[in-house]
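Feature request disguised as a bug: please show the residue count (391) next to Molybdopterin molybdenumtransferase in the output. Example input:
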Amino acid sequence: MIHVEKALQLVDNHLTKTETYTTIPLAQALGCALAEDVISPIHMPPFRQSAMDGYALGSVAETNFTLIGEVKAGDNANPELHAGEAIRIFTGAPVPTGAKAVMMQEKTEKKENMLLLHEQAKPDANIRPMGEQIKKGEVALPKGTVITAAAVGYLATLGVIEVTVYQKPSIAIIATGNELIAPGQPLQHGQIYESNSIMLSTALAKTGFTHVDFFKIEDEYETTLSVLDQAITHYDVVVISGGISVGDYDFVGKALRNLEVEEVFYKVKQKPGKPLYFAKKQNTTIFALPGNPASSLSCFYVYVLPALHKISGYSQPQLQRSTVATNSAYTKKGERAEFLKALVTGDTVTLLDGQASSMLSSFALANALIYLPNDVKEIHIGDPVQVIYLP
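Example output, currently without the count:
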């Protein structure tokens, strides 16, 4: 059994970024990492632009102006302003040639075709210069950047319609267990609803992993062997839920050994998620997660999702971490490292009730995990603790 830090290092050492990339429409790139720099094809803004509704002024040395017209957002006209002249202008509109400033309308008074300022304007006030945000030919977003909704909007403002991104891996999720049935069916004595596959697929979809297929296998060796063989052959990443322990009906470990995968580690000194398994076979990455739902999801966030990020070309594959003061006291019952479901609010974090590996009720309220290394035995209110923020 190895420590958490060793397990994380081994996962990282056995993964390489994909060399496969593809050019896709910008609207489909959410959650993908850029495989090359995006260069801005235009200045942004592409012209001097008014930052507010008001009046463009032909000088800043006077407070009385003659109004000669107006310019709206989207207008192609480019009237030239001279000293003593002003023009009505709206937010986002192109600033006329010769304009020295834009005065907000709240600080003006209009009388027929005359404009009176309540105060003298300052040079270039309320004018966004051409290329203020970015200039043509500059790097808009560097290689490795993960495309977010904001990034989509930013690139769209530059006229970008497609981007070159690293191709995301294909993923097989395999749920094992005779006791598992699909939600919606009547429960028989001894059965439980299978939740891990939909839980993990939802977590994957949230970060843009959509090439995901599901398999459900009962606790029977030949079936387990066949499904695992097919999954390892046809998918980049295989995530197995349950069946990795050493019970009489846990056949995953035996099947993987017979398939001659390269076991990197099995069992980590952590709670929850002790029976975590990690292996490789040629270019396929294999994780076997514990069957208990909260344990499975904890391992997914700590190990699987960062691994998928690295394979997908993310420049920063790990989930965000920080040190936060805790509102809770806690004492470990053992010597393993622990991942505790928690809620970060402002600059403090609160430990949630229901930390058992089978309980998802507290996970449903959590936005972070508190990480207690194996050498931390207890925490007190006010202590700084390391938190892992959930996506």
